[in-house]
Design brief:
Layout (H helix, E strand, L loop, with lengths): L1 H24 L5 E7 L4 H18 L4 E7 L4 H13 L4 E5 L1 H10 L5 E6 L2 H5 L12 E5 L4 H11 L5 E7 L3 H16 L3 E7 L5 H11 L2 E4 L3 H5 L1 H7 L7 E3 L2 H7 L2 E4 L2 H16 L11 E2 L4 E4 L1 H7 L8 E2 L2
Parallel strand pairs: 1-2, 1-3, 3-4, 4-5, 5-11, 6-7, 6-8, 8-9, 9-10, 12-13
Antiparallel strand pairs: 10-12
Helix pairs in contact: 2-12, 3-4, 6-7, 8-10, 10-11
């Protein structure tokens, strides 16, 4: 009788071990993912949603626990959240926008960090001789649409414009980078370029008025402050409004005539697929190059184009 009980116990233990093995092999681990988003903003929201959905599709919703924190546009809050994520030793962190990436990079060298909605990683992380791979515990995706093609949109839509203003926030390193590249490109095309900068939202209206007075056309790069203040930019120009080519669709929808658009949802989704590879042990983050948007689309703002009497070429798509 005792031998029979021992055999039954041994069989039960074997069955439990088999069930545990099966559960583990089916992805029983619950991955804890921190998401640090700089601000509530349509493009950043879309990137976060794409990231989450990709991980759900790849790993299963039951195997994931997300901690989404929004810094409300405050870099100091980014630092606080980054410290919190490190103290909780999350399996991976998404840093959505440049300030979020910088905060996470300053907080940990061990937890895998994927950036998204970051324009230029070399500028954001102060990397010299950048070869496309950050290394260490950081990789991600860039929202940089080809700047020369954005410049070509200005030349295409406004061939007679001579004075081009570049309007951006001087406190955002990625905006400075884009302004440098765009100025060099437009000047190589014989245009006169003047920069108009605001340091924060307080002087957006007055700087916008100055830019309008001195420009035939204005270019606004992908810029978080500009995105938050797009209506202020347009109203700030008063009765002297000038057409704006924007670096991203959200800005264009509020104050621009046209943009070379990417899908931030798709960008976030691509970042989520990178995350799944890291969590499954299929990729080493230190060896993963920065990825870029797979496609761009020329888009226009029907309302503002009508105000300026602009009829875009047939290959431009209306912003909904």
């Amino acid at each position: 009788m005792k031998l029979k009980k021992l055999l039954c116990l041994a069989l039960a233990l074997c069955l439990c071990a088999a069930m545990l093995t099966a559960f583990t092999s089916c992805g029983g681990k619950k991955y804890r993912i921190g998401i640090l988003q700089l601000a509530p903003h349509a493009a950043l929201d879309a990137a976060t949603n794409g990231f989450r959905q990709a991980l759900i599709d790849e790993l299963g919703e039951d195997n994931l626990k997300f901690d989404l924190q929004n810094a409300q546009g405050d870099a100091n809050i980014c630092g606080t959240v980054a410290s919190k994520f490190v103290s909780k030793n999350y399996d991976l962190v998404l840093a959505n926008a440049t300030a979020a990436l910088q905060a996470m990079a300053n907080a940990t060298t061990t937890i895998p960090i994927l950036g998204t909605s970051v324009t230029d990683y070399a500028t954001a992380l102060d990397i010299s001789n950048f070869n496309g791979t950050v290394g260490g515990n950081i990789s991600g995706t860039s929202d940089l649409a080809p700047l020369d093609k954005q410049g070509d949109m200005i030349l295409e839509l406004f061939p007679t414009a001579q004075n081009i203003g570049i309007l951006y926030c001087s406190a955002e390193p990625n905006s400075v980078y884009q302004a440098n590249v765009m100025q060099s490109y437009l000047e190589s095309q014989g245009k006169t370029v003047t920069r108009y900068t605001f340091s924060d939202s307080n002087d957006v209206s007055s700087v916008s008025a100055t830019a309008a007075a001195g420009s035939d056309v204005i270019y606004i790069p992908t810029d978080n402050t500009a995105a938050d203040c797009k209506q202020t930019i347009y109203s700030g120009m008063g009765t002297n409004k000038k057409p704006i080519i924007a670096g991203e669709e959200g800005i264009c929808a509020g104050c621009g005539v046209a943009t070379l658009s990417i899908s931030y949802y798709d960008l976030g989704y691509a970042t989520g697929k990178m995350a799944a590879k890291i969590l499954r042990g299929e990729a080493n983050i230190s060896e993963m190059p920065i990825e870029y948007a797979a496609a761009t689309t020329k888009k226009y703002n029907p309302t503002i184009c009508a105000e300026f009497g602009i009829t875009p070429p047939a290959d431009y798509v209306a912003i909904d």
